[in-house]
Write a structure and sequence with these properties.
Its EC number is 3.6.1.8. The chain contains 12 helices and no strands. By secondary structure, the protein is mostly helical. The longest helix has 25 residues.
């Protein structure tokens, strides 16, 4: 295919996925492509892939449906980018990626494309999905229980996935009360480290506390990532209400003090409860 024919596809509207694939091929052309795109590799693109996934989640969290289409397009571009680099290396391409995930979905839904029974709860379907994944790991010779939990996941999410894996082989507390006891134990150890130990040891104890809090969320059926995102949003709302109240008086937070701002925070909490 000549550069001109590539450009014809790239600049033709309504070309859909073939157009996007052609654009990426053109950008990566070693002779006529974009210098920045040519220089990229899987490692350099991976952070953008993660960022775009978060931007999709952010648009959904904010109910920003007018933005979601664009964010999904940005995420799709990341897949296309990796697919083009895989093609160049002779490892895989977009078609093989799509075919692999399509076959995985068929294999993991025997109750749809097989002789499995659809008359089961969502919880049972999740359990069946996890059993299918475990079988796939065994076939891939991932022999250890925690193998395959991606290192690149956000730490809080990875903690939950590691705990879920361990729980499947019986390494788990039987009820929430024991997890709460462990939270108190780890909090006490953090206080002890703060008062008597090194910064490195304080960091270790903080990690232990966060890990067991993630476990508590798992036992309570709470998504800790989602819960923390909601807490971040709540903090942002309330702090901005402090700024607004001070701005009405011609001031900024640096011209206030903790006592006043704490009172404004409490007022914001009251207003939120009254509007629920």
């Amino acid at each position: 295919m000549t550069p001109n024919s590539k450009d014809d596809i790239c600049t033709t509207p309504d070309g859909g996925l073939p157009r996007l694939l052609a654009i990426m091929e053109r950008l990566r052309d070693p002779d006529t492509g974009c210098p920045w795109d040519i220089e990229q590799d899987f490692g350099s693109i991976a952070p953008y892939t993660i960022e775009e996934a978060y931007e999709v989640a952010d648009a959904i969290e904010r109910n920003a449906w007018d933005e979601l289409e664009g964010e999904l397009g940005d995420l799709l571009l990341q897949v296309v980018y990796h697919a083009q680099m895989g093609l160049e290396d002779g490892r895989f391409d977009f078609h093989s990626i799509a075919e692999r995930v399509a076959q995985k979905m068929v294999d993991r839904h025997p109750h749809i494309w097989g002789d499995g029974n659809r008359d089961k709860s969502a919880e049972q379907q999740v359990a069946d999905w996890e059993a299918a994944k475990a079988k796939e790991r065994a076939q891939a010779k991932a022999g250890r229980t925690l193998d395959g939990v991606a290192l690149g996941l956000p730490a809080l999410l990875r903690a939950v996935k590691l705990q879920n894996r361990a729980a499947r082989v019986g390494f788990d507390w039987p009820d929430t009360s024991q997890v709460l006891d462990k939270v108190q134990e780890e909090a006490a150890e953090l206080v002890e480290a703060r008062d008597h130990l090194s910064k490195t040891e304080v960091e270790e104890e903080m990690g232990d506390l966060l890990f067991v809090v993630a476990n508590l969320a798992r036992h309570l059926g709470v998504d800790p990532e989602g819960a923390l995102r909601a807490a971040n949003a709540k903090f942002t709302r309330r702090f901005e209400s402090i700024e607004d109240a001070l701005a009405a008086d011609g001031r900024t937070p640096v011209q206030s003090d903790l006592v006043e701002m704490d009172a404004l925070w409490d007022a914001a909490k009251v207003r939120e409860k009254e509007t629920k």
